[in-house]
Amino acid sequence: QVQLVESGGGSVQAGGSLRLSCTASGYTATMGWFRQAPGKEREGVAAIYTATGATYYGDSVKGRFTISQDRAKNTVYLQMNSLTPEDTATYHCATAAQRWVRRHLTSSDYTYWGQGTQVTVSS
User: DSSP assignment of 99-115, as one string?
Assistant: First the structure.
């Protein structure tokens, strides 16, 4: 079993930036970031294959968000720039532990989830 701990959420004005962190208790092959706003479906934001560094992004965040990692710390980051009110949501990181996730931005392919961190963007 893998435990995930997120941090870095908060409130920011539109156009601002935030960086989220997610630390895993052990090795993970794939790490993903998802978000869910009230009344909306969960949305895949970004994912990374930790062994290769390959990254994947949802269309709504391409060019604004960057996922990265510190393998020595089992930590992934989500740098969020040019934030808009539409980015307001609870952000969760997820993993399938040692199993590679093929559908990188599909939440049902992930097994373990962090508790979530709130991001609020005001206009």
Answer: SPPSSTT-GGG--EE--
